[in-house]
Write a structure and sequence with these properties.
Layout lengths: L1 H11 L8 E4 L3 E5 L10 E4 L7 E4 L14 E3 H5 L4 E3 L5 E3 L3 H24 L4 H11 L15 E6 L2 E2 L4 H15 L8 E3 L6 E3 L43 H16 L4 E4 L2 E7 L18 H11 L2 H9 L5 E10 L2 E11 H14 L2 E3 L4 E3 L3 H6 L3 E3 L4 E3 L7 H11 L7 H12 L4 H14 L18 H19 L7 H11 L1 H22 L1 H16 L10 H30 L6 H6 L6 H9 L3
Length: 612
């Protein structure tokens, strides 16, 4: 159960965040002096430039009469600020509207009553004496020009936050628990579905969820406030009994995870959080590799997958230290649980290793394997802007990054629409880089089974699959053109790719005829090279009984894989030929064919970023 796991997370991290506290961005600090009480003017400190968050009291509030928050509230509550409005010349000026002024004074009065109540309960504290003396003065009528009513204001005494006092934490927690419990006169005690004990029950969850993209001020994890949501005529948590402690802990734990960069990631309009039952193994989950893969760690994960006996031994232990992952979205002010998974940590590592093995691509120039983060894979499915030489991030398919993360964690296939959309992008913009190849290979492996043996990271010269062989032939024909015309601006791939991927027979037959004069040109400078390239092309055509007239979606993907594998293979051979030529060795016929004129270090760098 999700709430049970969050409560366990909160219990394992006791002391990290006090009850009903949250990391909040305080914009103004009112610093009081504990000496000379009543005489010293409070010091107003502008914290807006610091851009930092402070753990401060918080609770969800809504309605026309929202409750104040202890020591850390908006300027409207803490200082009776009426707000800024647009002036006659477009500048921001202080509101003089009677409704704004009245609302500010009413809310400030509620704030004063709350803070005064705390001061009266702790008369022995010098901080309480300083705050009480400050509150005895009339509400301020002059505020910093940059301050607005929604800016968060916190109180300190001698530079120390008052809300950090143990007396403030306990008092505030007790105050919120009483306010959020069921109303007096109703059955406010019962069996909690989370902990299984008879405890005081909540009417609503006391802490809203913060940090999800597009979330509002009072986003609730559980919210039943419409008749269509009611169960047995009972609204809110009446039909879902949750005790005060469990409701507080679960919401606080989720907010803590959402605020921790090491335990959350954002994907479009989603937020993904993860944790383990034992906090000491958090750094060992390798979940972060999905968003920032490092070659050494990825190599270890893949090595674990390729030793099945070792993997079975690890899974047989069924470690109680489970790994939890949660994907959240927001609909108005309600949290949507888009995905929820609980698996042992060894199983997580096996799935992550499989994920990176399935997207593995080979860089022929550098003779290395490359791996990509989920956000980079999702971006490669966007439209490519040739003029700006980058992807248009607003055209990424909706929820794709979250869907890819889900596929990685569940060991499942990516969305069914991924392969057609990616192929359409490649045919339209003729751009093929390594992230697109990795995503293409991943989609093929996980959505098809007939051609899985072809989806290897490197060239498979024995394959007779028509789509794959046609892609190889296209790369060979392009290599012949580049060998004969080193300074060509528009290659045959630029001209004919869109057609060749779908209908290879007409294109490849025509291009084979067009390659003959190129081979004659090559023969004038290197007969052995021309002969070697012609022989390779002939051998590739011999792998086909007949050139297919049309290719299916899967075969189109294999066409592109075959094209890339042949180019990567040729790039590696060219790099070795260049190295041999620089060493003064005599090149064989095949090496002369591989040593393309354009093969250089600059091309190696560019080919790693874009192949077409």
């Amino acid at each position: 159960m999700l709430l049970q796991s969050l409560v366990q997370q909160a219990d394992s991290r006791q002391g990290d965040t006090p009850e009903y506290y949250l990391a909040r961005r305080v914009m103004w600090q009112i610093d009081l002096s504990s000496t000379g009480v009543g005489n010293a003017e409070p010091l107003v400190i502008d914290l807006r430039q610091e851009q930092r968050k402070i753990t401060a009291p918080y609770t969800g509030r809504s309605g026309s009469k929202p409750a104040p928050i202890l020591f850390a509230d908006t300027a409207q509550f803490a200082l009776a600020h009426p707000g800024l409005v647009k002036g006659p010349h477009g500048e921001k000026v202080l509101s003089t509207n009677s409704a704004d002024v009245t609302k500010a004074r009413t809310r400030h009065a509620a704030y004063r009553d709350l803070v005064t109540s705390w001061c009266n309960d702790h008369p022995h504290l010098p901080q309480a004496q300083a705050v009480a003396a400050w509150l005895n003065n009339p509400a301020p009528t002059a505020w910093p020009l940059e301050m607005d009513k929604d800016h968060l204001v916190a109180i300190s005494v001698d530079g120390e936050w008052v809300h950090d006092l143990p007396e403030a934490k306990c008092w505030w927690a007790d105050k919120v628990k009483k306010a959020k419990s069921a109303k007096t006169g109703k059955a406010n005690r019962g069996l909690c579905l989370v902990c299984g004990h008879v405890m005081p029950l909540l009417s609503t969850l006391p802490v809203p969820i913060k940090g999800i993209p597009n979330s509002g001020m009072n986003t609730q994890l559980v919210c039943l406030n419409q008749p269509a949501h009611f169960r047995a005529g009972t609204k809110q948590l009446g039909a879902t009994p949750i005790c005060v402690d469990c409701g507080t802990k679960s919401a606080t734990a989720l907010n803590t995870l959402l605020a921790d960069p090491e335990h959350r990631a954002f994907a479009d309009d989603s937020a993904i959080v993860w944790w383990t039952r034992d906090p000491d193994t958090d750094t060992d989950t390798a979940m972060w590799t999905l968003h920032d893969p490092q070659p050494e760690e990825v190599a270890q994960l893949i090595a674990g997958v390729r030793h099945p006996r070792r993997g079975r031994d690890a899974l047989a232990v069924l470690d109680e230290d489970a790994f939890h992952s949660l994907t959240l979205r927001v609909n108005t002010n309600r949290v949507i649980v888009a995905d929820w998974i609980t698996i042992p940590v060894p199983e997580l590592k096996r799935r992550l290793g499989t994920w990176f093995a399935d997207q593995q691509t080979w860089d022929g120039w550098n003779n290395t394997y490359t791996y990509w983060s989920v956000w980079r894979l999702a971006l490669s499915c966007a439209r490519w802007d040739k003029r700006k030489n980058k992807y248009v991030d607003t055209t990424v398919p909706k929820h794709l990054q979250a869907d890819l993360t889900k596929a990685a964690l569940h060991g499942a296939a990516p969305p069914a629409h991924l392969l057609p959309v990616l192929l359409q992008r490649i045919r339209a913009d003729h751009h093929l880089d390594r992230p697109r190849l990795a995503l293409l290979r991943l989609a093929l492996i996980r959505t098809t089974t007939r051609h899985k043996e072809l989806c290897v990271p490197q060239l498979n010269p024995q394959s007779t699959e028509p789509g794959y062989v046609c892609g190889r032939i296209m790369a060979m024909l392009e290599a012949i053109q580049r060998k004969a015309m080193p300074k060509v601006n528009t290659t045959i791939t630029d001209k004919y790719l869109s057609t060749a991927v779908v209908s290879p027979r007409a294109v490849l037959t025509r291009l084979r005829i067009g390659a003959r004069p190129h081979l004659r040109t090559i023969a004038r400078t290197s007969g052995p090279a021309a002969k070697a390239m012609d022989g390779r092309l002939r051998d590739a055509f011999d792998l086909l009984d007949t050139i297919p007239a049309h290719l299916s979606t899967e075969q189109q993907a294999l066409f592109i894989l075959g094209y890339d594998h042949q180019r990567a293979h040729s790039a590696r051979a060219a790099a070795e030929a260049i190295k041999a030529r620089e060493a003064g060795k005599e090149l064989a016929a095949g090496q002369q064919a591989d040593a393309l004129p354009e093969a250089s270090a600059e091309d190696a760098d560019s080919s790693d970023n874009t192949l077409w």
